[in-house]
Specification:
CATH class of the largest domain: Alpha Beta
CATH topology of the largest domain: Pseudouridine synthase
Number of helices: 7
Number of strands: 13
Number of domains: 2
Largest sheet: 11 strands, mixed
Length: 315
C-alpha cells in the first residue's frame, strides 16, 4: 500500500488559535513566479494585498524563510502564511468542557458558535477558543455541529489519534441523541423512523429531499408536550448535512428558530442572538478506540423555548 507523502510541520505558529494557511504549488508550468501563482490563486483578495504580503515577508517556505514575488515557480513547493483576521462579533455564551483526558476534549457548544474556522467565522469558533483557553495548539475536531446547533462536540488532543476518532463517526459507531423543540401536531403518529434522500449542494443554503435511495434516517420521538409545543428526541442513524432539520420540517413540525426550513428567511445577522435554533446535541455514547473506555456524555444545556414556551408558542 502506497503511503501518502508526509506533510512537513508549519514553520509559523498559530495566531489566536488559528492555523496558518498552507499552499502547495500545483505540478504545472503555467506560472513563472510564486507571485504570479498566488495572485491568481488568491483572486478574492483586495487589490495589492497579495503583493504586499510577499513584499513584507509574510509568505514563507518550509524552512520559515520568506519568499517574494520574484521567487521562481517550483512545482510542489509548500508555502505558509496567515490569513487576515478581521474583527468578529464575539459569541457571548460560554463554551463548557464536559470531559477532558489525555486523548479527548468534549465541549458543550453554545448556539451561534461555529465548530471550526470557515468563511467569516474564524477566531470565534469552538476549536480556536479551546486551543486558546486550554493551551492545546494541536487540538482538532473529530466531527462538526452546525453553527446554529448547540451541544456536544468531540475534539482530539493528539493529531496521530484523530483518524481513529473520526472513524467512529464515519462508521456510525457513535450513538448520538438530539433534543428539539417544535410545534405539537396531534395528528402526527410518533415514534416513527424517517428515511429519505437528502441532497445539499455547495453554495445553496438549504438541503433538499430528492428522489432516490435513502441516505438519511432519523428516529423521531415525542418526549413531552407543553401547550402547542412538543419536546422531541431525535436519534440520527446517518449524518447528512441538516438531516434533523430537514426531517422535522418534512413531518410538518419544523424546529423553532430555523431560518432555513421550511422556508429560507435569510442568514442570521452577525450579533443577533435573540432566536437560537431550538436544537441540541444532547448525548454522545461510544467506546473509546484508543483506551477502550465506555463514554456516556450529556449536555447540561436547556433549550430556551421549553423554559419560556408561552413566548415561543406563536413562532
Amino acid at each position: 500500500m502506497r503511503r501518502k507523502p508526509r506533510i512537513p510541520p508549519s514553520p509559523l505558529p498559530q495566531r489566536q488559535g488559528v492555523d496558518p494557511v498552507r499552499v502547495r504549488l500545483p505540478l504545472s508550468d503555467e506560472w513563472d513566479t510564486v507571485g504570479d501563482y498566488l495572485v491568481a490563486r488568491l483572486s478574492g483578495a483586495a487589490p495589492g494585498v497579495v503583493e504586499d504580503m510577499l513584499a513584507s515577508g509574510l509568505v514563507v517556505g518550509v524552512d520559515g524563510q520568506p519568499v517574494d514575488a520574484r521567487t521562481p515557480y517550483t512545482p510542489g513547493l509548500r508555502l505558509w502564511f496567515h490569513r487576515d483576521l478581521p474583527p468578529e462579533v464575539p459569541v457571548p455564551f460560554a463554551l463548557e468542557v464536559v470531559h477532558r483526558d489525555a486523548h479527548l476534549v468534549v465541549a458543550d457548544k453554545p448556539h451561534f458558535l461555529a465548530t471550526t474556522p470557515r468563511g467569516s467565522h474564524v477566531t470565534e469558533t469552538a476549536l480556536a477558543r479551546l486551543r486558546r483557553e486550554l493551551g492545546i495548539p494541536a487540538l482538532g475536531a473529530a466531527h462538526r455541529l452546525d453553527r446554529l446547533t448547540a451541544g456536544l462536540v468531540l475534539f482530539t488532543v493528539r493529531p496521530a489519534e484523530r483518524g481513529a476518532y473520526q472513524t467512529l463517526f464515519s462508521a456510525r459507531r457513535v450513538r448520538k441523541e438530539y433534543e428539539a423543540i417544535a410545534p405539537y401536531d396531534p395528528s402526527l403518529a410518533l415514534p416513527r423512523t424517517v428515511r429519505s434522500r437528502i441532497l445539499k449542494e455547495r453554495g445553496v443554503p438549504a438541503a433538499q429531499e430528492v428522489e432516490g435511495v435513502p441516505n438519511a434516517e432519523t428516529l423521531v420521538e415525542l418526549v413531552e408536550r407543553r401547550g402547542p409545543l412538543g419536546r422531541y428526541r431525535l436519534t440520527p442513524h446517518t449524518g447528512q448535512t441538516h438531516q434533523l432539520r430537514v426531517h422535522m420540517s418534512a413531518l410538518g413540525v419544523p424546529i423553532l428558530g430555523d431560518p432555513l426550513y421550511p422556508k429560507v428567511t435569510g442568514p442570521v445577522p452577525a450579533g443577533d442572538f435573540r432566536r437560537p435554533l431550538q436544537l441540541l446535541a444532547r448525548r454522545l455514547e461510544f467506546t473509546d478506540p484508543v483506551t477502550g473506555v465506555e463514554h456516556r456524555l450529556c449536555s447540561g444545556r436547556t433549550l430556551r423555548a421549553w423554559e419560556s414556551y408561552e413566548e415561543w408558542a406563536g413562532l
